[in-house]
Design goal:
The protein has about 525 residues and is an alpha/beta fold. About 40% of the residues lie in helices and about 20% in strands. The chain contains 19 helices and 16 strands. Strands 1, 2, 3, 4, 5, 6, 7 and 8 form an 8-stranded mixed sheet that branches. β5, α6 and β6 form a beta-alpha-beta unit. α4 packs parallel to α5, α12 packs parallel to α14 and α16 runs antiparallel to α17. The longest helix is centred in the N-terminal third of the chain and has 26 residues. It is globular. The protein starts with 12 loop residues before the first helix and ends in a 16-residue tail after the last helix.
């Protein structure tokens, strides 16, 4: 039997403590998510409604199929910055006319939908997801262009948004723009570069320069409608393919465009009626201990995520700090690599490299469950070849072509973060639990190293070392690194695609796996040179 057996007692003191810590972290994250959902705030939303307009989230809700799931991505972009959490953009994967699409909506309740540096970073990430997974892109446009005070951070890299739209189209991935209001200056190229464009009479305004700027630049007198109104673009310029009566009509037309795309997924699930896990998802709250130095068994997570809790473990007697094996998740085959005891040794590194090769030979997507402090250090391990074996694992991850999904549940430090397919290694999706921490090394270790280096430097130069100042600096650095390793900070930087409630893990990964199968899933036999 390959059904995983659980050893978790959700009523034990350890499980209850872990649960309480997780719920506390979730509460703080929920506060920030609520801020993103609020957009520009009650007064801004009220003004928007008073103009007869829907909010970005209301538009998305009407666009999606009834009761269809919507996996919001990067909802906390911009956390910790001077900009409203969410990056003034709502984005995610949703089902429209039975087709999984990547939806990107400007939030006009925040500075009229003007794009700031976090809007840009988030939108570029969405385009990356759409291109990798061949997801049709629906842009719900209402933007006054760039946030001018931050133009130096937007203008030059922002051109990639327009380049990406052309690349999506060139790759046969449909792009659809529904224009709900202003789409001015550079924003005019959003509909201009989309395959399908819907505009709303007396609402949509698309022009490179509005009447005041045209007057200043050329002396020409003009008005909004003749310069860039929906009627003009539908009847004269030809920029609009469809002229809608109101927002609801624009969304209806957008849905019909999707219905006529003749779009098909590259592959469906191997099992159409998958069995749910045998253990409750609620138990996932009590698995990761508050102190991440305490080990936990990742099989307890796997048992509550994969179909029927059925997991074929591979090499279970070798490299025990890394659990590898095969399963299905919502009917989709998946190979899983999960850190069991934090540290990666030579055996685990070689085990991972071979497992990744096997997944590529069988065209099987990979799921990485992170809880690693990195590769083992020390004289014995260096002499046994930890560098070349770690390099072997990183080589395999780097050149693997099957889709990778990463889920950070505990620590994800140093080169172990890379070997387990961190963001820099192009996983299709990266999600994080509130319990996760990620940095170059643990905060305590980094602070200790900084203290030791500063002390050694002073002594080597013949200077007296100020012990009190050194300890104060050590404490400051430890606090700084601990704060920077938190999931809210990393999510704010768009280093992940969202912090998720552990209880939602199966559903989130299921949507992600379904999305990656919109594109062909194919492995490779070509890897770099493995240093033996």
């Amino acid at each position: 039997m390959t059904i995983l057996r659980t050893c978790l007692d959700p009523r034990s003191a350890d499980a209850l403590a872990a649960r309480e810590a997780m719920l506390t972290a979730l509460a703080s994250i929920d506060t920030e998510v609520a801020s993103a959902i609020a957009g520009g705030g009650e007064s801004a939303v009220a003004r928007h409604h008073a103009r007869g307009k829907l909010t970005a989230r209301e538009r998305i809700e009407l666009l999606l199929d009834q009761d269809a799931p919507f996996l919001e991505l990067a909802p906390l972009a911009g956390y910790g910055s001077s900009f409203t959490v969410g990056g003034s953009v709502v984005a995610g994967i949703g089902v429209v006319e039975g087709i999984e699409c990547l939806v990107i909506a400007n939030d006009p309740t925040i500075k009229g939908g003007a794009s700031n540096p976090w809007s840009l970073k988030k939108t570029l990430r969405m385009h990356e997801i759409a291109l990798q997974n061949r997801l049709p892109v629906i842009s719900l446009v209402e933007s006054g262009g760039a946030d001018l005070p931050t133009q130096k951070d937007i203008f030059i890299p922002g051109g990639a948004i327009f380049r990406n739209l052309t690349r999506l189209s060139a790759n046969g991935i449909p792009t659809i723009a529904l224009v709900f209001g202003n789409s001015t200056a550079g924003g005019a190229y959003l509909p201009g570069l989309s395959d399908h464009v819907v505009m709303i009479e007396r609402r949509s305004k698309v022009f490179l320069a509005g009447p005041p700027l045209v007057k200043a630049a050329t002396g020409e007198e003009s008005d909004d409608e003749s310069l860039g109104g929906a009627q003009m673009h539908a009847r004269v310029s030809g920029l609009a393919d469809h002229l809608a009566r109101d927002e609801q009509d624009a969304i209806r037309i957008g849905r019909r465009i999707v219905a006529r795309l003749n779009w098909r997924k590259a592959a469906g699930p191997a099992t159409t009626n998958p069995r749910p896990p045998r253990y409750a998802a609620d138990d996932l709250l009590g698995i990761v201990p508050p102190d991440l130095k305490t080990p936990f068994d990742p099989r307890e997570i796997i048992a509550r995520v994969v179909d029927d809790s059925d997991f074929d473990e591979w090499k279970p007697l070798y490299g025990g700090s890394l659990v590898c094996g095969w399963a299905q998740l919502y009917g989709y085959p998946v190979g899983i690599l999960a850190n069991a005891r934090g540290v990666l040794f030579s055996e685990e590194s070689q085990k991972a490299a071979q497992f990744i090769q096997l997944a590529n030979r069988s065209d099987t997507p990979l799921l990485f469950l992170h809880n690693t402090t990195g590769y083992m250090v020390g004289k014995d391990y260096e002499q046994r070849g930890i560098i070349k074996h770690g390099a072997m694992m990183i080589n395999a991850v780097s050149n693997s072509t099957v889709p990778h999904l990463s889920l950070l549940v505990g620590n994800s430090y140093g080169a172990g973060h890379y070997g387990m397919c961190g963001r820099a290694y192009d996983p299709r999706f990266v999600f994080t639990w509130p319990s996760a921490r990620s940095s170059v090394m643990g905060a305590t270790q980094l602070a200790d190293v900084t203290y030791a280096v500063s002390k050694a430097s002073a002594l080597s130069q013949g200077r007296e070392f100020d012990e009190a100042a050194g300890l104060a600096l050590r404490g400051f650095i430890e606090q700084q690194i601990a704060a920077e390793a938190m999931p809210l900070v990393l999510s704010g930087l768009v280093y992940d695609d969202g912090i998720i409630d552990p209880r939602d893990t199966r559903d989130v990964l299921g949507i992600a796996l379904s999305a990656v199968h919109t594109a062909p899933v194919a492995g490779t036999a070509g890897f770099g040179v493995f240093r033996m």
